[in-house]
Model the fold of this input.
Amino acid sequence: MTSINVISGSPEYSSIDGILFNKDQTLLIKYPGGNTNSSYVIPAGVTSIGAKEFSEATFLTSISIPASVTSIDFRAFNGAKSLTSISVSNKNHEYSSIEGILFNKNQTELERYPEGNDNLTYMIPASVKSISSYAFCNIKSLTAVMFEKGSQLTSIGDYAFLGTTSLTSIKIPSSVESMGKNAFAFDKSLVIYAEARHESSGWDYDWNFNDYPVVWNVKEYGKYNGIHYARLNDDSITIISVDNTIENLVIPKAINNYEVKSIYDRAFYNNQELKTVIFEEGSQLVSIGRVAFRCCTNLTSIIIPSTVINIDENAFYGCTSLTSIIIPNSMTIIGESVFKGCKNLKNITILNNVTRIGDFAFEGCISLTSIDIPSSVKIIGKSAFENCSSLVNILIPSSITDIGESVFKNCNSLTSITISSGVMRIKTSAFEGCSSLTSIELPSGILVLGGFIFENCSSLTSIVYTGTKTMWDSIWKECFWNYTLNSYVIHCTDEDIVK
Done:
């Protein structure tokens, strides 16, 4: 549509040069999308610009707003894809513009950044206290948004950065108290840096619609040798990501004389180029965040520094080319699903300070044939070694009191299990599917046998119990503890029980 013409005498509408207005021409209703003019000067006397008036104006590059305009709907320019400049008369009492960007009169509110502006970066003036809803909606060129020193920003509106598909970074000032619904959504590769320690109570629950990485407590961020990093308020460096062209990564011990202390959540998630990771000598790395290396399917080698205290959940999940790992003695906990699905992991060394192996920690490590669990370990979590189908033997030390649910489920090559005297409870399905197991010894200190613990242990015919039959009878046995077992013997110290 190139023109909208209204017949004379219409009681409600009128038109000027094919553009639709209300009768008295105070409200601009619709600018035809097919109008091929590159610029448009809104007539004097217009007081209001409604929603989506320019939504299909694909040829329009500049708009001039007269002094008479007092109201502009926040969606007025959505979809004007070629618009590079919005200028405002100096005599207008409600609005102003700086370099083609629309503000309120005193420039405390950024109203609209034109969709066709092709600048790669933008610095928001310190005077701005509020970013309006949809202000940066569908801006395709911007890669970074920054704030002037002394920023007074307190509010970011609904959908403010919706669809800014090239935006890779933004640093939110600590002064922001209100964040609107879906303020950041469909922005692809965005990392959000925030000066605050955590989100404010005034931030909408869905402000970060696509769950982009958010780095809190940030002083500054930058790039060093292809490594994206942030300096936190304690002056430590956290690694955020790395350029996808890097195959062999060397993580320095310091950047700009600040020590590298952590690898942030999802830092290398799904990086298919990364093959080796080396930490510079003298590294003081303390933590590796959740999902940090998840699905780095070509990662073959990483040596975890001896200073690392924490490896968070899913950190190496699905690193299918990783063949060996050493857990340093600085660590006390191996987190949930840390090495889950590392199907070529054959060698795992756990040093003697680890006290807990988390749920699913090594689940699906199908090449693992043996593992030494140190005597420091007190807890083995649910399904920690489930589906480790090449695991042949296991020694459970006396420091462990509970063998957790499904811990060795479907370890169908397991032929030898040594359970030390400290174990008191064996939980549901602990050895389910261990089809190569022919015999197992249970210590006399056992108090509870969970349900289905030997389900589908088709070769199991002998249970050696180191207590008397009376002691055996006193054990609490949950329903179906011996489900699917047929023709087996329980060898007590004073009597055999034939089943």
Remarks:
- The longest strand covers residues 218-224.
